[in-house]
Amino acid sequence: MPVSSATSSLPLRMLHDRILVSLDAESSERRSASGIVIPATAVMGKRLAWADVVAIGPNVRQVALRDRVLFDPEDRLEVEIAAKDYVLLRERDVHAVAAPETAEADTGLYL
């Protein structure tokens, strides 16, 4: 399966059910509800991470290019390609795919 235009410079072709994702820049540190920055090194409970799909293998069924996926950061393989870090996952390691944003979701209910 061809690689997306955003990653056409990547010298690879994904195989089987593999998914290559790029981690969010904000996944390393978080903010509390009051705006306090919580560094990535802070000890927290087990927390899932979001990432953007940049390449998929030919046997991937439920995930598409440019989807946002939720996965366990402890079950991952990291790879560096063209001086950028990516995470390699199997499709079964993905817990959820983010629903696309719609204009209707922003209107709210009026009584």
Automatic annotation (TrEMBL):
- InterPro entries per UniProt: Chaperonin_GroES, Chaperonin_GroES_sf, GroES-like_sf
| Transmembrane segment boundaries | none
Superkingdom to which the source organism belongs: Bacteria
A Pfam family recorded for this sequence: Cpn10
Q: Which SUPFAM superfamilies match?
A: GroES-like
Check the record and name the SMART domains matching this protein: Cpn10
| UniProt keyword list | Chaperone
Extract one GO molecular function annotation from the record: ATP binding
What binding partners and quaternary form does the record give?
Heptamer of 7 subunits arranged in a ring.
Entry function: Together with the chaperonin GroEL, plays an essential role in assisting protein folding. The GroEL-GroES system forms a nano-cage that allows encapsulation of the non-native substrate proteins and provides a physical environment optimized to promote and accelerate protein folding. GroES binds to the apical surface of the GroEL ring, thereby capping the opening of the GroEL channel.
Q: Which family does it belong to?
A: Belongs to the GroES chaperonin family.
Report what the protein is called: 10 kDa chaperonin
The organism that produces this protein has a lineage beginning with: Bacteria, Bacillati, Actinomycetota, Actinomycetes, Micrococcales
